Amino acid sequence: MRASLAPYPASRLRRLRRTPALRALAQENSLSVGDLIWPVFLRDGHDLREPIASMPGVARLSLDLVVRAAEEAAALGIPAICLFPYTDPSVKTETCEEAWNPDNLTNRAIRAIKAAVPEIAVMTDVALDPYNANGHDGLVRNGIILNDESVEALVRMARVQADSGADILGPSDMMDGRIGAMRAELERAGHKDVAILSYAAKYASAFYGPFRDAVGASGVLKGDKKTYQMNPANSDEALRLVARDLAEGADMVMVKPGMPYLDICRRVKDAFGAPTYAYQVSGEYAMIRGAALNGWIDGERAMLESLMAFRRAGCDGVLTYFAPEAARAIRAGRV
Ligand code: PBG
Question: Is residue 196 within 8 Å of 182, Cβ to Cβ?
């Protein structure tokens, strides 16, 4: 394994930390713009930028501004943008049919972005929560989340996103069997090159709080998501979920949230060697940004350090609300 260390003073590990040049040579991991996926919030309307109180610096953008954001991302070299819709309460139903409406906000945004900035990869969220009167990712009957009926609905939703031109589908619903069902439908529909980035190990986490504000789901959710999202105490289960999703046809897998679950990132990468991503979720963003705005930490350094941590833990990339800011810092050589 490792060469054993000569005893001090023959070995002085500080030697390679003495100058920036030596530190650069000894650096094990790197962070580049190509590692970033930028999640953005969409809303209806024109020329609207609606700030999200619990995510300072992040706003819901109307479609025209989302297209501008995609252009900005592409110019910075960010390879992918991930769309999350803020849906009007009036379109939320118990049957969630807005989820597979070809003209829903997400599908219109996919088409608009692909028309204006074809080079950027567009990723979507496949889950029913933005459209569900119950706020859940799956269909609910008598308080029970229905797995198989939800999978059928999610497959319909995924199919329409692929028809609209999505490059990467991100099923975040945690129902059983959805990856295989989506993959089969994509093949049937001639979308053989559409990639699936499975939210394979997604935990029932308190760190999603600000996101639920951002998409207008906070007041809507009845109960919690513990019957489908993972127990934060588990880790072997994450490996079983990743194995299952890869076997069903996922191209890439995600661990979510990110920073509290770096151990899971490392285990997943070591066990499967598959393209592995972490989602630095809204609560993680809010903590770093909030502390920085209070002057308690250096926001840019904390951001870059947190992103490097994902690389060190074995991730190929990170979904982060900091993406444009991180891209600018990386391009300026501050990493
Ligand atoms: C829901 C979804 C969630 C996030 C992404 N997709 C929230 C949830 O599961 O309740 C969270 C992202 C974040 O917190 O930044 N399908």
Answer: yes
At 39 the three-state DSSP class reads: strand
Q: Span 307-312, mean pLDDT? A: 98
pLDDT of 216: 84
**Ligand 1 centroid to 286 CA: how many Å?**
14
Choose the catalytic residue: 202, 222, 226, 269.
Answer: 202
18 vs 38: CA distance, rounded Å: 36
Going by alpha carbons, the residue nearest to atom 11 of ligand 1 is: 208
Q: Which amino acid is at 1?
A: M
Phi and psi for 212 in degrees, rounded to 5? -65, -30
Q: String of b and e for 189-212 (b: at least 16 CB within 10 Å)?
A: eebeebbbbbbbbbbebebbbbbb
Distance 269 CA to ligand 1 centre (A): 22
- Set 92, 114, 256, 269: catalytic member: 256
Confirm whether 226 is a catalytic residue.
no
Tell me the per-residue pLDDT of 49-81, one tens digit each, with 9 for 90 and over: 999 999 999 999 999 999 999 999 999 999 999
Q: Where are the domains positioned within the chain?
A: 32-331
pLDDT, residue 1, reads 60
Ligand 1 atom with the shortest distance to the CA of 170: 6
Place of tokens 């954001």: 69
Side-chain-side CA neighbours of 44 within 13 Å: the count stands at 8
Contact call for residues 78 and 324 (beta carbons, < 8 A): yes
CA of 197 from ligand 1 middle (Å) equals: 14
pLDDT tens-digit readout, 88-107:
899 999 999 999 999 999 99
Say if CB 254 and CB 277 are below 8 A apart.
yes
CATH number for the segment(s) 32-331: 3.20.20.70
* 92 is known as an active-site residue: no
> Is residue 96 within 8 Å of residue 132, measured between CB atoms?
yes
Please give the distance, rounded to the nearest whole angstrom, from the Cα atom of residue 212 to the centre of ligand 1. 7
Residues with CB under 6 A from ligand 1: 125, 127, 129, 137, 172, 208, 211-212, 225, 281-282
Would you tell me how many other CB atoms lie within 10 Å of the CB of residue 97?
A: 14
